[in-house]
Amino acid sequence: MSQLTIFRVLTFILVPVAILFGILDLFMLLMALSANPAMLLIVFAMACFVIYIFTSVRFLLQGIGNERQLNASLKDWIKVNAYGTLFISVMFLMNSAAAFYINEVNLRQMLSEMIAQQPDVAGKISLDYFIRLFRVISGIMLVVSLLAIVHVMINFRLLRRYEHLFGKE
User: What's the rounded Cα separation, in Å, for the pair 136 and 96?
Assistant: First the structure.
């Protein structure tokens, strides 16, 4: 399979993820502004992911697909947000990988403390279900982060190959 085909498939796999991340990012932004300013770094990185995916879609469909001339600023948007995407993808990758290697006893203790801190959730959800949910979400985030890292690497190569599509400003 060619790089362009892989890039096309990965792009359309990551679009629904970007939409979900965009919605989550808005809620996280509101929480960060009102209660927890330390979350702003994660909010920024998730916004980079969303912007990166949608600028990549534009590059793929309008530039590569239709051979249209694109603004040079689009290339800058892709590159800058690709670094933020790499940051959050590596963070997700490390967290997801750690979730699979954590000791079962430590995981149970950590998740039971998390449930205890949430008064509306405590008693309504079993610890075993929460552990399964945690593992499933960790697996999904592991796959998404790997796909995003591969996407960024291929996108950098395609930006060089299709340099002629970006006009001068």
Answer: 10
Please give the pLDDT value at position 127.
74
Given phi > 0 = left and psi -120 to 50 = alpha, else beta, which region is 2?
beta
Q: Quick check: 68 and 165 in contact, CB under 8 A?
A: yes
With contact defined as beta carbons under 8 Å apart, do 10 and 151 qualify?
Answer: yes
pLDDT digits (tens, 9 = 90+) for 105-159: 887 888 778 777 776 665 677 777 888 888 899 999 999 999 999 999 999 999 9
Structure tokens, 118: 């949430």
**Number of residues written out for the chain:** 169
Residues 6+ apart with CB under 8 A from 23: none
Residue 102 DSSP one-character state: S
Residue for token pair 């995407």: 85
**Can you say whether the dihedral through the CA atoms of 72, 77, 78, 83 is positive or negative?**
positive
